[in-house]
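Typical record is below.
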Amino acid sequence: MNSQTRQYLFGSIFIAVGCYQFYINDMLEFSMYACAGFAFIFNALINEPAMAAYKKVLTIITWMLIIATALLFFYVLRYKFF
């Protein structure tokens, strides 16, 4: 499996776990997993040849999603366990 396919797979796994969190009505963890999944997918889209014109925009979106995921992770850690 190449690295491009692996990023789509990890993104899909994170989104699937997010859908489960949505199903059990845990919106905080749903948003964290959804952001992480979309960050993986947008990061994979950066290397697609058809998206070469949008590389800068996709990079900005990816970094915003990564930062949002990190902040949500720290919030979940603080909110649920302390």
Q: What stands out?
A: The helical segments are 3-23, 27-46, 55-81. Residues 32 and 75 are 10 Å apart (CA to CA).
